[in-house]
Design a protein that fits this description.
Helices cover about 40% and strands about 20% of the residues. By secondary structure, it is α+β, with helices and mostly antiparallel strands. The chain is elongated.
Length: about 190
């Protein structure tokens, strides 16, 4: 019986040509990094699209039922009048929420804070990091932004998301956290 040769797929090596990771160096007293200011506009656009679809659908319903002289038209108008202030608040909310997002890298963990009314601070120890991803949709890319997703082991939600980072910074941070997670897992 002849022995089959082992097949090894070619490895694709990616080298990062950007700046070093010195500004991501761990420090216990490090201040929180803030998100890119353009994320506010991204949030406003995405919420504006959602509310336009919802309220536009209601307006079309009012037009259709109004032509049929149905009794439901006053209820749809009242519904739109109730939803309109909520839509305005929802679209303005990113301007308020932006100030409360932050990311801090410490010696053995990463902190992510957010929340305006209900504050949330999550600590992700490097030993719990499974893998780290970056995501960037078409609108995010047009603003030069990316979302960092840290997948963790044994946590309640399984992953932690940090939106609105500049693309190059998100990639550097992804590489740093992947390396830190691998290094701390082998202690």
């Amino acid at each position: 019986m002849t022995q089959q040769p082992e097949i090894h797929p070619p490895l694709r090596r990616i080298t990062y040509l950007g700046a070093d990771l010195a500004h991501f160096a761990p420090a216990a007293d490090r201040a929180y990094y803030t998100l890119d200011p353009n994320v506010r506009y991204l949030w406003i656009i995405s919420r504006g699209i959602s509310w336009t679809i919802l309220l536009g659908g209601m307006a079309v319903s009012i037009a259709i039922t109004g032509m049929a002289r149905a009794a439901i038209t006053p209820w749809l108008i009242k519904g739109m009048l109730v939803l309109l202030p909520l839509a305005v608040l929802s679209i303005v909310w990113p301007l308020i929420a932006y100030k409360h997002w932050g990311l801090a890298i410490r010696e053995h963990d990463m902190l992510v804070r957010n929340g305006v009314l209900f504050k949330h601070v999550a600590s992700v120890p490097f030993t719990r990091i499974q893998h780290v991803d970056t995501h960037s949709g078409p609108i995010e890319r047009s603003f030069g932004l990316a979302t960092l997703i840290v997948h963790t082991a044994g946590s309640q939600l399984g992953s932690l998301t940090v939106p609105g980072l500049p693309q190059d910074e998100a990639q550097q941070l992804r590489d740093y956290l992947s390396k830190a997670g691998h290094t701390h897992a082998n202690l």
